[in-house]
Design goal:
The chain is α/β, with parallel strands linked by helices. The chain is built from twelve helices and six strands. It has a six-stranded mixed β-sheet, sandwiched between helices. A hairpin with a 5-residue loop joins strand 4 (213-218) and strand 5 (224-229). The termini are far apart.
Length: 280
């Protein structure tokens, strides 16, 4: 059978196709991002991030773009496909990502690395590069990770609580500018409604999750699943007994952690300790 020929030459990956169409439609209008922002009443940088694939935006802005470009429903349909696409994630994570997208609340504990939902692109790049990713695969995984952040944005974002071991905040990026941006982003996230950020200090001593990053997802209907991972593998746990034992360990860690207010002050101190790069 002859190989199927692509007619348009456009991307077949939902997130890339959505970003590609946004760029194409704006180019056809002959407008800059700043002009587009002024006409539609959104910050122009949002459209820039959408066109680069760093964010999908919300349904309201996509509907406004559909109306402005005269493409009723087309961009919204592409947005829905991109939002529901989990194939950009590495295969071992896809089942978890599908459940994460459905979760009505999430809580998490980090041993050494910030959760993907709170990572900036600079942080994700350094962490994923350290794990061995290079080239196109690295760029794809950074884009996928940035897309995950949208879960916690908007008025309908599910409640999210994270406990960060102090080691997470003591392990800085080599790029000081990227590290400052990550800490600033973390402070901004900590101020969002429905989000709680705790720091577990070294002084807490040993605890039941010493070597375990763990996520808990409460799904529609009240069922909770857990996902534990390290740098090399992850495991989805759905049985009630093991999930319950992990939750008890998590509750004990939360009791030892700083309050959100104390944690915010701690993160701010970390930010203040980052040296500023000299002005050229």
């Amino acid at each position: 059978m002859p190989q199927r020929r692509l007619v348009t030459g456009r991307s077949q990956e939902p997130r890339q196709r959505f970003a590609e169409e946004l760029r194409r439609l704006r180019a056809r209008k002959g407008e800059s991002l700043r002009q587009l922002g002024e006409r539609l009443g959104w910050d122009w940088s949002l459209f820039g991030k959408m066109e680069k694939g760093e964010t999908l935006g919300g349904p309201e802005v996509v509907q406004a773009l559909d109306h402005y470009y005269g493409t009723p429903g087309m961009l919204l349909a592409l947005w829905e496909l991109a939002r529901g696409d989990h194939t950009q994630f590495r295969e071992r994570y896809r089942q978890y990502m599908a459940l994460e997208a459905e979760a009505v609340s999430l809580w998490h504990f980090a041993v050494s690395v910030l959760p993907g939902l709170l990572q900036t692109a600079g942080y994700a790049r350094e962490v994923l590069s350290a794990g061995g990713l290079r080239g196109e695969e690295l760029e794809q995984q950074i884009e996928a990770r940035m897309g995950r952040r949208e879960l916690l944005e908007g008025d309908d974002a599910p409640p999210f609580r994270t406990i960060l071991s102090e080691a997470v905040l003591r392990t800085a990026l080599r790029n000081r500018t990227a590290w400052r941006e990550q800490l600033e982003s973390l402070l901004e996230a900590a101020d969002r409604p429905g989000m709680s950020v705790h720091v577990l200090p070294f002084s807490a001593g040993h605890y039941g999750l010493d070597a375990t990053d763990v996520w808990f997802l409460r799904l529609p209907g009240g069922h909770t699943v857990a996902y534990i991972e390290n740098a090399h593998r992850g495991e989805l746990i759905e049985e009630h007994g093991p999930v319950e034992r992990l939750q008890r360990a998590y509750d004990a860690v939360r009791d030892m952690a700083m309050s959100p207010a104390e944690s915010r002050k701690f993160i701010l101190r970390m930010l203040e300790e980052v040296p500023c790069d000299p002005t050229p």
